[in-house]
Specification:
The complex is a heterodimer of chains A (527) and B (262). Chain A is an alpha+beta fold and 527 residues long. Chain A folds into 3 domains: 118 residues, 2-Layer Sandwich (Beta Polymerase, domain 2); 34 residues, no CATH class; 316 residues, Cytochrome-c3 Hydrogenase, chain B. Chain A contains 19 helices and 15 strands. A 5-stranded mixed β-sheet of chain A has the order 1-2-5-4-3. Chain A has a 3-stranded antiparallel β-sheet with strand order 8-9-10. In chain A, a hairpin with a 3-residue loop joins strand 1 and strand 2. In chain A, helix 10 packs antiparallel against helix 16. The longest helix of chain A has 29 residues. Chain A is globular. With 262 residues, chain B is an alpha/beta fold. In chain B, 26% of the residues lie in helices and 14% in strands. Chain B is built from 8 helices and 9 strands. In chain B, the strands form 3 sheets. Chain B has a 5-stranded parallel β-sheet with strand order 6-5-7-8-9, sandwiched between helices. A two-stranded antiparallel sheet of chain B has the order 1-4. In chain B, strands 2-3 form a two-stranded antiparallel ribbon. Classes of the chains: A alpha+beta (527), B alpha/beta (262). Chains A and B meet through helix 5, helix 6, helix 9 and helix 10 of A and helix 1, strand 5, helix 5 and helix 6 of B. Chain A: One of its GO terms (molecular function) is quinone binding.
Chain lengths: 527, 262
């Protein structure tokens, strides 16, 4: 299955440069190549084969092969496969060739690797710090195995410079990290002339907690609970992706009922989040009535979660090998009734907001993300779908349960706030339909296939469609059922740079609205 | 317009009457409890607890849970071989003294960086809130490194179901306007300065409430290179609200407790 025509052609063209190939987990192809050839290969895969760079990370493999490794993950979204280019970096050199000039989506990954591993991306157009702020010393790289998790380096005093726009009448507006609303912390630096925004630079990582480092050496069981706490409102899809990866490594198939139970919860999370986003969008245009309608519906969605598992954030549902218990049995009628109620109310509210000229005026042609930029930066989820990228993990990388369910992916092309609103509204309806259908065709049976032990130094990807988009976790196991490396890439990481582009040319008062239409997670980005 | 009026008539009031009345029909998960009679002190839950909240003293044959660290995941209930650990639906857990939430007492470091008048400030505040603001309280929420779960629940306080404004509690945009800071998150390295600045910008007298396991103790994220063990290392805390995340009503209980209204 993995030997597609395009993959074959790639291995033929670069036959001399490929040192090793490994086929695993049915849809992952790892090719090890010379560091010197990385730029030409990545460029070929990205531009000729059309595979987007979906993740990129380094790994301290000195204990395994005396080198650092960098993984470039490309996805074939038509066939549902990963193509991973791996290259080994000599610890004496501590540098690698930057591919940002040719593959734009690599920009932030390379800066992240530089901060966390001290590997230098040579030729990066803007290699400034990403993860660490001015208080972090130069010579401390937490993701190296030699760094102690509990070591807190002394506070340094370095200044971080923002990109400057210099011209007559251009001024800067600094915002954050503590914002006016009840949201997460981040610092925004607007360069503005009059009203329109010329440039926006976001300094994030205020909530960087060191999750990836923390998981190393911990048991696979504990890391499940950590994965639930990567980003609060995406608790379920994050642990879903983590479980998928571990289940692939353990080579077990989860029971069919567990698969459908996960679908129900994943869609419930999507519904809850989208309703919350729509409420927030209405608040940001001062449309109080609609905002409270959506918040009421969100409350009803939370009530379903409470009824099913006792946790509004769907924590403690997933378990390695399935779900903790049969949450659905006997509660089908309650779910159906509640969903019908939400659906009806959503239809009514949708009609009301769509006939409000003032509302449409605010959201239409605001915060346009062009398809070209969205593709280059690998914008995912509703942000990508609003700009005409027809991609949904549930269709491209379907699991057993999603294969049996029919649903449509919303298609919008203008890339403005209105399109993202429409994507979210349509996805709410789809989510309701998916849950109803899943309840109907869900087979009876057990919900958990116990995983007792996993083989050491195995790796696999877990991929899910969270409410914000494509969510990719890569897990490598260590000795005694522990984690050796856990790379988390949430959709927010991809969409933050897209947001910075979408606000350009818009007036400052529209920023909260555009920001909310993306609704990015700071915690999911900062880790 | 007609449709809007129709909706307003259809849903006149969805607000729950908490704290006067608590809806116990919802089977939500609250704090875990260990039945000391059933427990065999095998230590399995202590070893596997993801946030190391369970303490076992084998010599004294004593076991208990530090609720400021507990993330309410339910693992102890699942793995207990004799069924001694059970998840209850108790959610009103907020305490003014962190040690009241703990099994083993914690000596919280000397607060040399604090204003000495803190004790006096606190007692004055109670009187002040009643006298000066009547029954109203202005809150500034600060995320000092949470996963956004607690923040979503704080947001939930002003939704139609909880509507904290009916109790005179509302959220303001600046610490300069606030009587209380509602802090979430494990006080990450990059937020420590911002948190201290926000605290200093809040006029005296003021209250600080730690929301969620991370703010109380660091929770599951405690003691990494980028986090500290709770916000009380940075600012003095008046009330601790455990939970991961605490439900909106649990937060409301904590806020009211800080005001001595429950």
């Amino acid at each position: 299955m993995i030997d597609t025509e395009t993959n074959k052609k790639l291995t033929e063209i670069f036959a001399d440069d490929i040192l090793d190939r490994l086929n695993c987990n049915s849809n992952e192809l790892y090719l090890t190549v010379e560091p010197a050839k990385i730029l030409s290969i990545c460029k070929y895969i990205n531009s000729e084969m059309g595979y987007p760079l979906v993740s990129m990370f380094a790994n301290d493999e000195i204990s395994l092969c005396e080198n650092y490794a960098i993984y470039y993950v490309f996805a074939d979204r038509e066939k549902g496969q990963f193509l991973i280019i791996k290259t080994l970096i000599d610890p004496l050199k501590m540098a690698f060739k930057s591919i940002t000039g040719k593959v734009h989506a690599a920009a932030r990954y390379e800066r992240e690797i530089k901060d966390l591993f001290g590997l230098n991306p040579i030729g990066h157009p803007n290699p400034k710090r990403l993860v660490f702020h001015g208080n972090w010393p130069d010579e401390a790289f937490p993701l190296r195995k030699s760094f102690d998790l509990h070591h807190k380096p002394d506070f340094a005093k370095k200044s971080i410079n923002f990109g400057k726009v210099i011209s007559a009448g251009v001024y800067e507006i600094p915002v954050g990290p503590v914002h006016a609303g009840i949201i997460e912390p981040g610092h925004f630096r607007f360069s503005v002339a009059g009203e329109p925004i010329i440039n926006l630079e976001a300094q994030l990582y205020f909530v960087h907690k060191g999750i990836e480092k923390m998981c190393e050496g911990e048991s696979i069981e504990k890391c499940l609970y950590v994965s639930e706490r990567i980003s609060g409102d995406e608790s379920f899809t994050n642990s879903y992706a983590y479980c998928q990866a571990i289940e692939k490594i353990a080579k077990i198939k989860i029971p069919a009922r567990a698969g459908f139970t996960r679908v129900v919860f994943a869609e419930l999370e999507r519904l809850t989040n989208h309703l919350g986003d729509l409420g927030g969008l209405c608040t940001d245009v001062a449309y109080g009535f609609a905002a409270y309608q959506f918040r009421m519906m969100k409350g009803w969605a939370y009530a379903i979660a409470d009824e099913l598992c006792g946790m509004r954030f769907l924590r403690g549902v997933n378990k390695l090998g399935g779900v903790r218990k049969d949450f659905i049995a006997g509660k089908e009628l309650i779910i159906i009734k509640a969903l019908e109620k939400i659906k009806k109310e959503l239809m009514d509210t949708n009609e009301i907001i769509k006939s409000n000229g003032l509302f449409i005026d605010r959201v239409e042609h605001t915060g346009i993300l062009s398809k070209k930029i969205a593709t280059d930066l690998n914008a995912v989820g509703p942000a990508g779908r609003g700009s005409g990228i027809l991609y949904d993990v549930r269709k491209a990388f379907p699991n057993e349960a999603y294969r049996q369910l029919e649903f449509k992916i919303p298609e919008h092309h203008n890339g403005d706030v209105n399109c993202r609103i429409n994507v979210k509204i349509e996805e709410c309806y789809e989510a309701i339909e998916i849950i109803l259908k899943a309840l109907e065709i869900m087979p009876r049976g057990k919900v958990l296939e116990q995983i007792d032990a996993v083989a050491p130094y195995q790796f696999a990807f877990g991929i899910t469609e969270s409410p914000r988009g494509e969510n990719i976790h890569w897990v490598m196991t260590g000795e005694n059922n522990t984690i050796f490396r856990y790379k988390i890439r949430t959709p927010s990481f991809c969409n933050w740079p897209a947001l910075c582009h979408a606000v350009k040319g818009n007036i400052v008062p529209d920023f909260p609205l555009i920001n909310k239409s993306f609704n990015l997670s700071y915690a999911g980005n900062d880790l | 317009m007609f449709k809007i009026i129709k909706k307003i008539i259809k849903y006149p009031r969805v607000t729950q009457n908490y704290p006067k009345y608590t809806d116990h029909s919802i089977p939500f998960i609250g704090k875990p409890e260990i039945d000391l009679e059933k427990c065999t002190r095998c230590g399995e839950c202590m070893k596997r607890c993801p946030s190391h909240a369970i303490v076992l003293d084998k010599k004294a044959s004593d076991i208990g849970i530090n609720y400021d660290e507990c993330v309410f995941c339910g693992l102890c209930e699942d793995i207990c071989p004799v069924g001694a650990a059970v998840m209850t639906s108790k959610f009103e857990l907020a305490e003014k003294d962190r040690n009241k939430l703990r099994k083993n007492t914690l000596i919280i470091g000397e607060r040399t960086y604090l204003d000495k008048s803190y004790e006096i400030v606190c007692s004055e505040l109670k009187a002040n809130i009643h006298k000066t603001f009547g029954r109203s309280l202005h809150i500034r929420a600060v995320d000092a490194g949470s996963c956004n779960g607690c923040d979503s629940e704080i947001n939930g306080l002003s939704n139609p179901f909880n509507d904290s404004e009916r109790l005179g509690i509302n959220f303001v945009a600046s610490p300069r306007h606030a009587d209380m800071l509602l802090v979430t998150g494990a006080a990450t390295r990059n937020m420590q300065l911002a948190l201290a600045k926000t605290y200093n910008a809040t006029p005296d007298p003021k209250l600080v409430v730690a929301v969620g396991a991370c703010a109380c103790s660091g929770g599951i994220f405690k003691d990494t290179y980028a986090t500290s063990n709770g916000i009380d290392r940075i600012v003095p805390v008046d009330v601790y609200i455990p939970g991961c995340p605490p439900r909106p009503q649990a937060i409301l209980y904590g806020i009211l407790k800080a005001l001595d209204r429950v």
